[in-house]
Batch of 3 targets.
Target 1
Amino acid sequence: MRGLWWRGHDVDADTVLAFPVGGELRSLSGADFDIHTLSVSEESLGNAAVALELELPKIGARPEVFPVPAAILDPIRWRLRSFRDGLAVARPDDIAEILIALLPNWLGRESHALRPQPAPRARRRAIRMSLELMESRDLTALGPAALRAHSKVSERTLEYAFRERFGMTPAAFIKARRLAAVRSELSRASPDKAQVSDILAEFGFWHFGQFARDYRQAFGERPSDTLKRHRVAHMASE
C-alpha cells in the first residue's frame, strides 16, 4: 500500500502493525489494498524474545506500529506469499525465523536488551572472515559451525552479525548463496545438455520439491524457467 493514516500513525509499505488479542479491527478496503498477516501465540513471542535476549514488555506496553527495513521485510513478504499461495507450508521453524527477524525492530533492541551486544569490531570481523571462507570452500559442505570456528566468535555473535548485516541467520545466508550459485549455473548452462536435477545435485540439493519452493520464493520463478529462458535466448542469438 502507498500510505495510510492509522490510529494516529503514518503507515506505509515498510510498516508492521501489531494487533494483540482483542485489538483486531473490522474494516473494509479497496481492491488495491494488500496486507499480509501472521498470527502467533504469546509463547512463540516469548521464545523468540529469549532467543534474542530481549525483554518482552506486557501487552499494553508494546508498540502498535513499527517500521522495518526493506532488506528484512521483503524476504518475509516472499515467505508469507508462498504460504498464502500454497507453495510452502508454514512450519514452526518458519514462524520462529520471522519473529526473530521482526522482534528487534518491534521491541527496540537498544532499549530492551538484557545484556550489551557483541562489540561492532567483532561483528565486522566475523562477517569478513565468514565471507572469505565461503569464497574459498565448497558451500555444500559449509555450515554455521564452520563459520564460527573460522571466525573465532560465539554462536550469538555470529548470529547477531549476520542479522545486523544481511537480515538473516548464517544458515539462511549460506542457503541463499547456494541458491544463487544454482541460478548462475542454470543461466549459463548448455541449452541442449543441462539437466536441472544434475545441477541441483552438484550443489548439494537432493530434495527437489523443497528446493523448487525455495528457489521460487527467492527468484520468483522455477529452476526450469531459468534454464528455459537461457535456452530461448541462446536460440535467438543463433
Target 2
Amino acid sequence: MQEKCLIYDGTFDGFLSAVFYTFEHKLELVNIQNEFAPQNELFSENEHILTEEDKANRVWSGLKTKLTSQGSYQMYYAFLSEKDGVENVLLDYVRYAFSKNTKVDKDYSHPSVLKIAQIAKMVGREKHRMEAFVRFRLTKDHIYFANIEPDFNVLPLIQKHFKRRYADQKWMIYDIRRRYGLFYDLDKVDIINMDFPKQFDFTKTNSDYFAEQEFDFQKLWQDYFKATNIKSRKNMKLHVRHVPKRYWKYLSEKQST
C-alpha cells in the first residue's frame, strides 16, 4: 500500500484538518507535512489539505473528551515546537487517544504520549524564558519594541502574559527567526509581518529608530546590573544554566556601555 503525504498550511487548524482527512478516508500509511518544510517524499502520493475550521473544531472538541486540560495544552505546545516529524507523532497520539475509552495523556507507557509530554515540557521552558528575557526598547514612534529568536514558536503562548503585564503601553514583540510578530495597540493584539531595512541590526539600539531616552534607560539598567552583581559570589556555571548564552546578544544588561 502506497503512503499518502498530506500537506497542510502550517497552522494548527490546518494540521487538525489533515487529521480529520486521515480519519475520514481511513488512511493507514500517512505522512503529514508542513508545506513550508522540505518535501522529500519521492515515492508517496501527495494531497494538499484545505484548512477547514469546522472540521478542525470537530477534531479538537473530540480530543478534549479524550484528554485532560493538561493533555490538550501538551498537544498544542508540541505542535508549536516545529520539530521535524512532530505532526506524525501527534497523529499517532491522536489515534491512540480515540482508540481508548479513558483519558490517555498520562499513559507514558505509550511512546507517542511520552514523546509529546517531553516536547511540550521543552516548549514550556522556552515560553517561560521568553517571558523573563524579553527586553523592550522605546522607538521614536513611542512603541516599545522587543525582538526574540526562540528555539520554538512560542509567540502564541506569551501573548496573554505581555498583554496583561503591559496593558497601558503599545508594544511589539518580533520573532526574527519566523519573521512575524505581535503588536498591542492598547486594545488588542494582532499578528504582524514587517520588512526591516537590510542594515538593521537587532542586537543594537540604533539612534535612527530608537528614542533618545532609550539610551539613558539602558545605561541605568546596565549600572543597576553591575551594582547588584557581587563578584565574590559569581557563579558563571549557574548563571549560564539559568540564562543561556544564546539569549545574551539581545539582553541590554549584557551589552557594552
Target 3
Amino acid sequence: MFKTRLLSGILLVIIALVTLISGGNLLFGTVLIISLIGLSELYKVFEIEKKMLGICGYLFALGYYILLYMKPLLPGNAMDWFMMLFIGYLICLMAIMVFAYPTYHASQAIAAFFGLFYVVVMLSYIYQIRIQAGGVFHVWLVFICAWGCDTCAYCVGMLIGKHKMAPVLSPKKSVEGGIGGVVGAALIGVLYALAINHWGNAGVQVWEYAVIGAAGGAISQIGDLAASAIKRNYDIKDYGKLIPGHGGILDRFDSVIITAPIIYYLAAIL
C-alpha cells in the first residue's frame, strides 16, 4: 500500500511539474479534465453523475471553461458573461426539477449547482494564477500551501499533538498539528521566495510569500476537513479510485480546491 501510494505521488508530482512549467493550453486542458473528473466524483456522492442534473452540470462546466479561455476576447464586461452562464445553469436545473418531478430531490439540484462552483470554478484558479503576471512563480504557492501544510501538520501532530482540532470529524488531527502546518507553510513560502529570487531573479517580497503561505495553509486545512465532512455525511471512504493509494481527484485535491482562489487574490492584492 505504501509503495503504491508513493509511486502514485511521484507520478502526480511529475504531471504537476510538466503542466505547471509548460502552462498555456497543456495546463488549461489538464485542469479542465481534472475538474470534470472531480465534478463526476462529487455528483456520484449525490447519485446524479449519470442523470440529467449531472449531464447539465458537465455541459455548463465545459461552457465555463470555454468562456474562461475566450475571456480576453469577450465583448463588454467579461463578468457579465460568467453571470449569465451561472444564472442560465440555475434556470436549467430548476427546469429539470420541474419537468422531471418528482424524479429529483431539491438537495440534488442544490448539490449540482454547488458542484460547479466548488470543483470547476475553484480548480480553474490554478490556470488563472498561471496566466497572471508572475504566475509562473505564484502558481506553485497553491501546492506549497496545500501539500506543504498537510505534511508539516502531520509531522508536528505526530510529535506533539495533544488537543483534538475536530474530534468527531477527524480524530487524528490536532490543534498543535494545525498550527505547525500554518507555520510550516509560511516557512516553506519564505524558502521558496528566497530560492526563486536567487535562481530565478523573481524579485518577489519574502514577507509576502510568508503571509500567503500562512493564509493558504490555514485555508487548506478547512478545505481538507470540509471534503471529509461531505464523505462522513454520506458514509463513503474515498471519492474515487482513480489515483491508487490516494483515492479520487477530490481526495487528493481537496485542500488545493479551496486554496487556489485564495492564492490568486492574495497574489493579485499583494
